[in-house]
Fold this sequence. Notes:
heterotrimer; A: mainly alpha; two-stranded antiparallel ribbon; 1% strand; C: alpha/beta; six-stranded mixed beta sheet; four-stranded antiparallel beta sheet; 34% helix
Amino acid sequence: MSPVIWAYVGINLILTLSLYLNFYCGQFSLGVAAFMGLGAYLSSVLTVTYGLNLNLALLISSAVTCVVGVLLAFPALRLKGFYLAIATIGLVEIFRVMFKNIPFIGGTAGFSGMVGTSLPLIYAWVILTLALVWKIEHSRLGWAMRAIHQDETVAEMTGLNTTYLKVVSFGIGAAVAAIGGGLYAHYMFYIDPDAFGFHRSLIILLFLVFGGQTMWGILVGVPILTILPECVPQLGGMRMVFYGAILVLIMNLRPQGMVPEDLVRRVHGRYSHMRGTRSQ
Amino acid sequence: MEKTTNNSHILQVDDLKVRYGAIEAISGVSFGMGRETVAIIGPNGAGKTTLLTTISGILRPVYGTIRYMDKRIEQDPPEKIYRAGLVHITERGKVFSRMSVYENLLMGANGRGRDKDLVSDLDRVFELFPILKSRRGQSAGTLSGGEQQMLALGRAVISRPRLLMLDEPSLGLSPLLVQHIFEYVRVLAQDGLPILLVEQNARQALRVAQRGYVINSGKLILSGTSEELMSNSGVIEAYLGHEE
Amino acid sequence: MGGIPICAEPARSENDMLIAEGVSKNFGGIKALNGVWLRVLRGSVTGVIGPNGAGKTTFFNIVSGFYAPSEGRVLLDGRDITGLRAHQIARMGVSRTFQVIRLFPFMTVLENVLVGQNRNVPHGLASLFHSLGSGKEAKRKDSAMELLDFVGLADHCDALAGELSYGSQRRLELARAVAADPALLLLDEVTSGMTYQESMDIVERVRILRNKGCTVLVIEHDMNFIRKICDHVAVLNFGCKIMEGTPLQVQRDPEVVEAYLGKDDQ
C-alpha cells in the first residue's frame, strides 16, 4: 500500500480529533472544514510566499485559527444541537466563498507550491494531537467538558463556567483542525477552496460516528474508512457513494459505532485492579 | 410465594422473572387480585416500577406468566394491553406537553368516541381537580410536576379502564393533594374498579387498599390484609413510622 | 395564627445567610412569584412548603441563579447576587439538588462527586498542567469517598450514575451538592419517593450538615421530615408567602391547612 494512503490516514486522524473535541463538550459543531481551510491557506502562504519553516508556519496558522475560532464561538455557541450544526455548515460555506474571492491566495485557481511534509512529520503531529486529546480527557478540564455534554444546566449550577469551557473546546478544536489543514495542503502540493466545503465536514463526521465517538474508536475507524475505498479502485470518483453506503449500514447495524464508550469502559473495567481504584 | 385462587380472576401473576440489563429486577414474583384494591409497598429499587411496566407490556419477562381476565398477556404489545382496559399510569405521570390540558384529557378517550358519558366524565375530573379546570386551555408542559400527575390520572380515568395500575400517584404532591388523590382512588374502587397501587406513602396506600404486599429486592417478602400489614412491626419500622 | 406578619419588611442582620426582598417572577403572562420576602438565618434549616405550582422551585431557581427575578433582590451573606449567573452564585457557596433527579448519567458515582468539587478546584485550561495522579487529586478523591460513605454509596463508587436505583440517585445528588462545601444548600424535594426509613436517614444527614455550619433550605411535602429537622418554615401559595413560623405554628394555621395540609395529617 502506498505511503499516500497513510498520509491521508494521519491527516484524517487529526481532523477527526478536532471534531471529537467539540462533540466531547456536547457541541455539535461541523465547522472543522472551515478551520481546516483557514489553516491550510494560512500555513501555505507562510511557507510559499514568506519562506517560513513548515512547523513554524503550522504553529502560527494554528494559533491564528484558534483566535478566529474563539471569536466565532461566542455567537455560535448560543445555538444548541441541531441549530449549531446547521449554523456551522453555513460557516464552512462562508469561508469557502471567502477563499474563492481572495486573489492573493489564488481564488478559484487555487494555491500551489507547498512542500515539506513527510510521513514521519505527519505522524509526529498525529502523536502530538493524540497526546493533547488524551491529556484533556484525563484532566479536570475534560471532566468539566463531559459534564457539560451530559447536562449543561446542572454543570453550570455546580459552578462550571459553561461559556468559557465551550469556547475553549471550540478554540482548541479549531487549532487542531488548522494543523490538519496545513499538513493536508503541504502534502497535496495544491489546494483550492472546493477542497474545504461542507462535504469535508460530513466525511469527518462519518469517521467520528463510525468510530463510536471515543479515542479508540477514532484510531480504529479512521484507518478503516480511509483505506477501504482505496481497496476498490473501481470506485474512483464515486467515493461519496461509498461513504453514504457506510453511513446507512452503520446506522442500521451498529449505531453506537465500532468502539463506543461503554465498550471502552467494560474493557477498562477488566483491568481496573491495575489502576488502584477502591475495590468492592 | 402464595397463589391466591379466589382472589385472582382479574390479574394473576405467576413466578415472574424480569431482567433489566444485567440485573434481575424481579425474581419470581407471584400474586393475584380480584375486584379489589391492592397495594404494593417497598423501598426504592425493589422492583415496584419494573413490576408494573412488565404487566403493562413495556417490558418482557424472561420467565413466568401474567394472566389478565384469564388471558395470557406477558408477550402482548402494550397497545393491545391498554385497549383491553389495563391502564398503567407511570411514575411522575407523563403528559403530552405540547397539547392543552383539555386535549390531554381527550387523549384518554381515544377508544371511546364523543359519547355523552365523556362529557360527564370530564366534568367529574374537573370537579376533583379544579386546578385542571382553571388551566384547561394551557399547554400541559407549563403545569407544575404535581399538576401533571393529576392530569395523567385524569386522562387514565377518562379511558374507562377495567384494571387501573398506579405507580406512585402521590409522588411530589402536597399533603392536601395526596388526600384528594386517595379520595379519588377510593371513589373509583367503590365503583368496582380493580386497582393495583404501588406507593411510597405506605400509610395512605394501606388505608385505601384491602390487601397489600411488601416487595424488596425483586421478591414479595410479605403479604396480608391492610390491617395485618399496618400492625406488622417490621412494616411500621421501615415504611410507616410512628404516629407523633 | 402565629408567625411573622406577611408584609412587614424584615430587619436585616448579620445573621442572615439569605435575604429575598420582594422577589417576583413573570413568565409571559403568568406571575409565578409575587413579592416574596424571606430571611434565612445562618446555620438554620428552613423549610419551604406549599401547594404544587406555588412557586417553590421557581424561588430556588432564582436563588441558585438559573434565572433572574423580574423584580426584587436576593442577598447572599450580605452580597447582592440578583441577576448573577448560576456558576457565579455556585462559586459563592450555593449548592442545590433538583426536584427531578439530574445527575451526569454516563459518569460514575465517584466522578459525579468529583465534578461537584470543581468549583473550588482549577478545571479550565490551567488544569491541563496538573496531573490527575498528583497528591492533591488523591486528597480530593479521599474527600469524595468520604462523602460517598456519608450517604452510604461508597460501595457503588464505580457504577454509572444512571444505573443506580432512585433512592441512591437522590443520595448521590446530595453528595454531589455537598462536595463543594457549600455555605447554603438548597434541597428540592430530596425525600420524594423515599420510604419513611430512607427519609429519616436523610434527616440525620441534614442534621450533621447543619451542625457543621451549613445553612439548609428545603422544599418538602413530607411533613414528618419538616417537623423533625426544620427550625423555621415558610409557606408559599400562588406565588406569595402566606405564612411563616415554626413547624408547629405552620401546621396549625387554618389557611395552611385548607390550602395545603388537608384535614388528616400523617
